[in-house]
Amino acid sequence: MRQLISEEDYRLECQKIVSQAASVPQLLEAQTILSYWPKLEVREIDLRPLNCWLRARGCTVLLPIIEPNSKNSRIRWGHFDHERTLMPNRWKILQPEKRAEISAEDIDVVLVPGLGFDWRGHRIGYGGGYYDRLFEYVNAFKIGLSLDSCFIELIPTQSHDIAVDCLITANRTLKLN
Known about the structure:
With 177 residues, the chain is an alpha/beta fold. Helix content is 21%, strand content 21%. The chain has four helices and eleven strands. The chain has a seven-stranded mixed sheet. The chain has a two-stranded antiparallel sheet with strand order 4-5. It has a two-stranded antiparallel ribbon with strand order 7-8. A hairpin with a 5-residue loop joins strand 7 (116-117) and strand 8. The radius of gyration is 15 Å and the shape is globular.
């Protein structure tokens, strides 16, 4: 569905999603945010402007680090300072070069990517289980971000699946928990 949307509509939807996210109270009150750097070629939500805005507000913005050659590993994180300081990982996703010494308990909000979400806040990712494992040890407010066209009626879940607390699209913000 993400590939079917025009480039212009994709850009406009991402701008609206970022605007909606910037008004979520939990994000406005957060000091430390684990975000992500989008893969634009697969039309992930473009959070680059939000990441920069959060940093300009004085927040600590972290980005995931997936260590090379690790199977079933956990997401680690490093500081987002500037795009020039990011390095591609094995999936060509830009990530910080080194880990930040920030504990899981200090993360206030996690911005969660997904291929799609259902109305209960469950997501379909890329199949690596990284966010499922992340939520086992990071107990932060979770915000899912999605294009409107990428909502699925019902995603089958298992006991280890953890829903997001809030879903944001260009046209709505849903507080779920």
